[in-house]
Amino acid sequence: MPCTQPPSAPQHLISNVNETSVNLEWSAPAFSGGRQDLTYNVVCKRCGPDGQRCEPCGVGVHYTPQQLSLRTTRVSINELQAHTNYTFQVWAINGVSPQSPGPDQAASVTVTTNQAAPSPVTSIQAKDITRHGVSLAWQQPERPNGVILEYEVKYYEKDQNERSYRIMKTASRSADIKGLSPLTSYVFHVRARTAAGYGDFSAPFEFMTNSVPSPIIGDGANSTVLLVSVIGSVVLLLIFIAVFVIGRRRSKYSKAKQDSDEEKHLHPGVRIYVDPFTYEDPNQAVREFAKEIDASCIKIEKVIGIGEFGEVCSGRLKMPGKREICVAIKTLKAGYTEKQRRDFLSEASIMGQFDHPNIIRLEGVVTKCKPVMIITEYMENGSLDAFLRKNDGRFTVIQLVGILRGIASGMKYLSDMSYVHRDLAARNILVNSNLVCKVSDFGMSRVLEEDPDAAYTTRGGKIPIRWTAPEAIAYRKFTSASDVWSYGIVMWEVMSYGERPYWDMSNQDVIKAIEEGYRLPPPMDCPVSLHQLMLDCWQKERAERPKFSQIVNMLDKLIRNPNTLKRTGAEIPRPNTTLLEPSSPEFSSPLGNVSDWLTAINMERYRDNFTAAGYTTPEAVVHMTQEDMTRIGIASAAHQDKILSSAQGMLSQMQQIQDRMVPV
Ligand code: ACK
After folding, report:
1. Which of 170-174, 192-196, 300-304, 355-359 has the lowest mean pLDDT?
2. Distance (Å, rounded) from C-alpha 87 to C-alpha 568?
3. Residue 487: its pLDDT value, please?
4. Ligand 1 within 6 A of 398 CB?
5. Is residue 423 annotated as part of the catalytic site, yes or no?
6. Which amino acid residue places its CA nearest to atom 1 of ligand 1?
7. pTM of this prediction?
8. 45 is in an annotated binding site
């Protein structure tokens, strides 16, 4: 027999960076060396800003499933440092590799991690509990991911609604909370902020204030009071321990229960958005949600645009003790009415409640002198629609899907907070120098007044017709599901590099065409899977549209399996400036519904599993993996195989149908 040899390098290594995590995927080497014992080792190197001077990443970096002797062709690497260059090598190894190690057995990729918010604060301690206050202290988060600028303590009475909470900010790792009611249980959460934004809040920390004044130690005049106080304190201490232990037990229980729930329930810090117009005094909302900035900290440099309320400028913000940063400055023009001032500042009260990498970050407001200003982070590449038009055809499909994923993630956050945007469109997305997209434009009146694409409806309201779901146009039913419709239009704008949805059709014609069941066709070179997702977002029945969490998952899956993005339908000659007819094969599933299919393959017992996990269309089912099956509760390997092989058959049937598709 000939000698066996070391394998050649893994092929097609691709990376996907998500904040401080990196996913690597590759395919098997072209040459296996004539052996079956192929595994992979991953080498991680941290490099200087120029990508040179690399050193081993060391401990602290986590690899899933593992770093060495991998049998899979993918690995997820977590807990990397933010804003850092890394080079990863993936080595193909077999039993004879040690005989002849060489660089031709490895593939490598270099990435830069993004910014990441700090990890949650974990250990909080209460010191000096009194009738009306408590001193809290905590440790720095395990992974600060940057310099901690401040901590925020959120607290509320345990028996009260969590929405009536109070916030205290501090630069140190302790806080003296005052003004509490005696003998009352309070819940505290602490979170840290760096230049990348806020981290998650800590788990709840509960305690009860004292009922008796602190004894005056050394005053022996009234030993009875002292004795009562000491007994009282001991009893309270026992109550406190009991409350703490029960609290801990309960939170452990609820965590176990909630693990399968939506993300918003997992993080006690994710709260519901508060409409600033529900405040009797909207200025109070501004004070609560936006930081007042001294005008002397701001340098206006140039005008970059005109908004409804005045000029939009770029400039610099230098707060005492902090680094200077680039900012965008929205100004309120002179001669404004009180209502205009309120409407202008409502955007800051809304934006100030959000904290997410795909939502534009509010730095603060200037209200104490004129002009009144709203200061936000600066987004170097401006609005997404103009940016795409300027860069027509320059991005890979994966980059475009990355853009869409960012927007969907920001929208998921907003919908988790029960905020409905109402004017989601590429013109209202901003792009920074790293191609990170952030949702912006949160003014309430703006939706109706400022947007040049908004038109008056028969009911008198002003609505951006081309981006808006039919039920929102017809009877103002604005929900996260109508935002999903708009998101589908944004997908179309992105994949067509900023083309105007429905081209030069009039608003009336658009409304009529949508009502008759027509939909936008796939833009040129758009993967079939993405156009299908758009069509799902444009379901007439809003309950049938995907949720933003499902859209994020779907896009993640497409990014992980780039092969699913290869089919573009380009082989079908079709003018792509004509709407799709309602009867197009792409439209409704040509393969019937999931329930019928499960019945046909004698697997109807899993119908509820599919429905509960959101796999409601054959298009969604055909891309499922074995892991997905396990996740939705199909434990039997034989059943998994049966369903997967039938789904494969369905996929090829689908492809045949699409190949037969005719121009409409
Ligand atoms: O497309 P643009 O350059 O991006 O023109 C508009 C203009 O101001 C009027 O809204 C730009 N703009 C708004 N907010 C920001 C921001 N945070 N960073 C950079 N540009 C911004 C927008």
Report:
1. 192-196
2. 32
3. 98
4. no
5. yes
6. 383
7. 0.54
8. no
